[in-house]
Design goal:
By secondary structure, this protein is an alpha+beta fold. It is built from ten helices and four strands; from the N terminus they run E-H-E-H-H-H-H-H-H-H-H-E-E-H. The protein has a four-stranded mixed sheet, with helices on both faces. Strand 3 and strand 4 form a beta hairpin. Helix 2 packs across helix 9.
């Protein structure tokens, strides 16, 4: 039996996407899966589906701050929620960051995983900007990209090719039924199946016939 293709549609503005990203990275060599990262644009999904940010409902926003702290500890991901985290999210656009990540996915996909991780680290661990060109370059260098490749990628984010790819990936997530992120799509028995949220990975495993061993499983020897 072949490996189950599992696609992770994510945006670095989403803290739960980071949790799902790290957990799935840990399971890709334990479960019989072909893990594929699909950078998309969360704001576009929210707009198209009429969904609203959690912080728009005060009580839900208060819960989210506590929940992310607990989940980060459980998943052992260095995600830190500041007191003004919700305002920080609402006041930030991830468009330039996601175009930058998309450009790398198109040209140098070997950097896709470390680059995505460094964007999450900068925004969610260090609480630093991810919108300005100089900060995109800083993240790229931290992910191991050369100065030349970083600059070339920065120049690509204004191209129609990159813009269209990000739009297409976002549209694909919507086609699968996404209304937020992370959106995990398992292609199982000839059909795509959507699982929403980082807390649905145990259910994902059960669905595709794999065992959930917790958020930090011991690697196969």
């Amino acid at each position: 039996m072949g490996r189950t293709v599992v696609e992770l549609f994510y945006d670095v503005l989403s803290p739960y996407s980071w949790l799902a990203f790290e957990a799935l990275c840990r399971y890709r060599n334990i479960w019989n899966i072909d893990l594929r990262f699909r950078p998309a644009f969360l704001a576009g999904i929210m707009q198209q589906t009429g969904n609203k940010p959690p912080g728009m409902l005060p009580k839900r926003g208060e819960y989210l701050v506590k929940d992310v702290k607990r989940m980060a500890k459980y998943y052992q991901v260095p995600l830190r929620m500041s007191a003004d985290a919700l305002q920080h999210i609402i006041g930030t656009s991830s468009l330039m960051a996601m175009r930058f990540i998309t450009a790398i996915d198109m040209t140098n996909p070997q950097y896709l995983e470390p680059l995505s991780r460094e964007f999450w680290m900068r925004f969610w661990s260090q609480h630093e900007d991810i919108t300005q060109p100089e900060n995109l370059l800083t993240v790229a260098r931290q992910a191991g990209l050369s100065a030349e490749l970083s600059q070339k990628t920065l120049e690509m984010i204004s191209s129609a090719t990159v813009k269209d790819r990000l739009k297409e990936t976002t549209a694909e997530a919507l086609k699968y039924g996404a209304f937020g992120m992370p959106a995990v799509v398992a292609h199982y028995e000839g059909e795509p199946h959507l699982f929403f949220g980082s807390d649905r990975l145990e259910l994902l495993g059960s669905f595709i016939g794999e065992k959930w061993l917790g958020p930090v499983p011991s690697p196969k020897l």
